[in-house]
Amino acid sequence: MSEEQKPGQIVILNGTPRSGKSSISGVIQHTFDGVWMNMGVDRFMQMTPECYQPGIGLRPGGERPDLEPLILTLYLAMYESIAAHSRLGLNVVVDVGHHDNYSVPLGIVPKCARILRGLPVLFVGVRCPLEVVMQRRIATWKAGYEQDGSVPKPVRLWQDVVHFPGIYDLEVDTSVLSPEACAGLIRQRLEEGGPFTAFKHFEAID
């Protein structure tokens, strides 16, 4: 990166499936000033061969330990790409569902944070209550509660682990705020300026 080249801003949206991350990403890409590249879990899953699916979308619970070494590699590759875009002056919005509830801990976030060391990163927690997530799952996939009325185990696990340890620069709740309103809070936080410290916390974890 040349001395004249200012790195692009990185905004990472972390939350469960159906929490509204993709909608916020779209608003950011289409309404924020400058060039915003839209990256994240869905796009990397689309690039992943079918035999290795769900790739970085692997659910919590240790269901596929055979895939876990590849999951770490894919995450590192994604974050290397994010870093490359930022260093070239491109802004990047990323939607992910980070967790470490694999068959063995993989320490993905600290490893990824070190890749972004020295780059401007705003880490946003996208929260959504479980009952709203279930409503959205039913509306989108016609997949809801179990026959006994309980929430499916993978959905509960996502809700339990995706926000651990809950260290963010900003949090938004999509059950009470529209994607536009969430993006507005993110814009406001960026305009206020740093320091953004959440990812710096993870950099220091071994």
Keyword list:
206 residues; alpha/beta; Rossmann fold; 5-stranded parallel sheet; 42% helix
Question: Can you tell me about this structure?
Answer:
With 206 residues, this protein is of the alpha/beta class. The protein contains eight helices and five strands. The chain has a five-stranded parallel sheet, sandwiched between helices. The two termini are 27 Å apart. This is Chloramphenicol phosphotransferase. It comes from Paenibacillus physcomitrellae.
Question: How are the secondary structure elements laid out?
Answer:
Blueprint: E1 10-14, H1 21-31, E2 36-40, H2 41-47, H3 68-87, E3 91-96, H4 108-115, E4 121-127, H5 130-141, H6 153-161, E5 170-173, H7 179-192, H8 198-203
Parallel strand pairs: 1-3, 1-4, 2-3, 4-5
Q: What is the terminal separation in angstroms?
A: 27 Å
Per CATH, the superfamily is P-loop containing nucleotide triphosphate hydrolases
Rg on CA atoms, Å: 17 Å
Q: Poorly predicted ranges (pLDDT <50, ≥5 residues)?
A: none
Which shape, going by the Cα principal axes?
A: globular
Main beta-sheet strand count, sense and barrel state = 5 strands, parallel
Overall CATH class? Alpha Beta
Quaternary structure classification: single chain
Number of strands: 5
Average residue pLDDT: 94
Task: Kindly give the count of domains.
Answer: 1
* Helix percentage: 40-55%
Instruction: Write the CATH fold name.
Output: Rossmann fold
